[in-house]
Design a protein that fits this description.
The chain has 490 residues and is of the alpha/beta class. The protein is built from 16 helices and 12 strands. Bound molecules: guanosine-5'-diphosphate (GDP) and magnesium ion (MG).
């Protein structure tokens, strides 16, 4: 950290210009209170001439540089270290006119502040030890969280749940390596302070933990950016109709003509407080033209990167056509990492007439389709048990509530225990993977009876990677990368 930068007093609007009733302008740094006092006509001083105590709100009538009335404001004063940044800070709440905010910024700069860089307030909070790097990163996530699940994860990270888990792992490794390095001081005497069996057990436990956390990134990322859910099937199965019905709007073109959707369409939808990213794809068929073939290739790519694969079947179409598209889908699904669901669409064509019930004709047809499709699944994967089956009518919005329920249940099972930590940041996942790899080498070194100094180097490396996440180890480059994604004023 360039030290001189912390001596500056910085200012920036903390709210978006032009929306809402009030705007907040933030000021932080050693001269923050003095500068604000100057701009607010001396209102931040008490009758004795001393600056008001921290956590005080003062009313002020502010004037512009020509002395004309500018606005009536409230100024909240915070004294170091009891502020967001850990420095003296002032937050001026003015009326939400972009003109007023601009005038205030000009006055503050004229009085000695400078405009803040993106994320500079949060960066100062990190540098001043108010939060670690993982917590600082969660501030951006908290602001961006658009649903209950992503808010919960960001909140846990901001409150330090993730950090304390990492700190525990790091402390245990530190204790270990200290004991081992002590042995090096007594190398003449060939002593062992650290019991090698206990050492291996600890390294295995922490490695497994690091790996589990790294693997949770798939679920964590799904919570943050929406669970990728691909809608696939033969042409005309009703994929675009299903997307529109789920979204409650005409997003994709629906047509009787085969091969209408040639490119993919993505839309996010909140179900039960969790975010899903639905991807409508080009339908699968053999007789496709060139452009359509490209679309079908993209469909297979999208299946590969999805978490949930919705196979839409038009149950009124010939068995041969159903089998053909299902076979193509199954060939691209990784049943260990992905969830396949079978949607038996156009069930309305077999309606029984009496309300709600399935006709015997429908039941009969479904049973025959199950048998054929079951034969196309890999060994050990069972229809209904492993591959949920939902009869529905995308057109008549029937069965779609059940689909929403099945999707929400699946996401919930993926997230596990509501208090469990999920990694939502690719930087953290990378560091955890590197930690696990260093511990793999540690474990191997221990079992091969490698010299203590070599083994302890690998442990040091694991400690280093854990420290990267919380910022005990940080470089200008990493900090720049983290904070450049922030807006000015955060
Ligand atoms: N009867 C019936 N027709 C449907 C249903 N879903 C879609 N369709 C019709 O099937 C045709 C193809 O639909 P579309 O959504 O474009 O299929 P896609 O090619 O899979 O995207 C259209 O004429 C739809 O109106 C359904 O649930 N029942
Ligand atoms: Mg379509």
């Amino acid at each position: 950290m360039r030290q001189n930068k912390l001596n500056d007093t910085i200012c920036a609007p903390a709210t978006v210009p032009g929306t809402g009733a009030i705007s907040v302008i933030r000021l932080s740094g050693p001269d923050a209170i003095c500068i604000a006092d100057k701009v607010l006509g001396g209102t931040l001083k008490g009758p004795d001439g001393n600056i008001v105590p921290g956590n005080t709100v003062k009313f002020a009538r502010a004037a512009d540089s020509e002395g004309r009335p500018l606005d009536d404001v409230l100024a909240a004063v915070f004294r170091a270290p009891h502020s967001y940044t850990g420095e003296d800070s002032v937050e001026i709440s003015c009326h939400a006119s972009p003109y007023i905010a601009e005038q205030f910024l000009m006055l503050l700069v004229a009085a000695g502040a400078r405009l803040a860089e993106p994320g500079e307030f949060t960066r100062r909070a990190f540098v001043n030890g108010k939060m670690d790097l993982a917590q600082a990163e969660s501030v951006a996530d908290i602001i961006a969280a658009g649903n209950e699940a992503s808010h919960r994860l960001a909140m846990m990270q901001m409150r330090g749940g993730f950090s304390s888990e990492l700190k525990k792992m790091r402390d245990e490794l530190l204790q270990l390596v200290t004991l081992m390095e002590l042995e090096l001081d007594f190398s003449e005497e060939d002593v062992q302070f650290a019991d090698r069996t206990a050492l291996t057990a600890l390294a295995v436990r922490i490695r497994d933990h690091a790996r589990r956390l790294a693997e949770s990134f798939r679920a964590g990322n799904a919570v943050k950016n929406g669970l990728p859910t691909v809608i696939t099937g033969a042409t005309n199965a009703g994929k675009s109709t299903l997307l529109n019905t789920l979204l409650g709007e005409e997003r994709a073109i629906v047509s009787e003509q085969h091969g209408t959707t040639r490119d993919t369409i993505e839309e996010c939808l909140n179900i039960d407080g969790m975010l899903f990213r639905f991807i409508d794809t080009a339908g699968l068929r053999e007789s496709a033209g060139n452009i359509e073939k490209k679309g079908i290739e993209r469909t297979f790519e999208k299946i590969g990167s999805a978490s949930v694969v919705l196979a839409v079947m038009d149950i009124s179409s010939p068995f041969r056509r159903l089998s053909e598209s299902f076979k193509a889908i199954v060939g691209h699904v990784d049943f260990k990492a992905q969830k396949l669901m079978l949607l038996m669409n156009k069930a309305d064509l077999y309606a029984s007439g009496d309300e709600g019930g399935f006709s015997s004709e429908l039941m009969d047809r479904l049973a025959r389709i199950y048998d054929r499709l079951q034969a196309l699944l890999p060994e050990g994967v069972r229809i209904v048990k492993d591959v949920p089956v939902i009869p529905l009518s995308a057109k008549m919005s029937f069965g779609t509530d059940e689909l929403r329920g099945v999707l929400a249940d699946y996401m919930r099972s993926m997230l596990g225990d509501p208090d469990s930590v999920l990694v939502t940041n690719v930087r953290h996942a990378d560091a955890l993977r590197a930690t696990a790899e260093a511990l793999d080498r540690t474990i191997k070194g221990l079992s091969d009876g490698l010299p203590t100094d070599l083994v302890s180097q690998d442990i040091r490396e694991a400690i280093h990677h854990l420290g990267e996440i919380t910022g005990e180890i940080s470089t200008e480059e990493v900090l720049g990368e983290v904070f450049k994604g922030f807006c000015v004023g955060k």
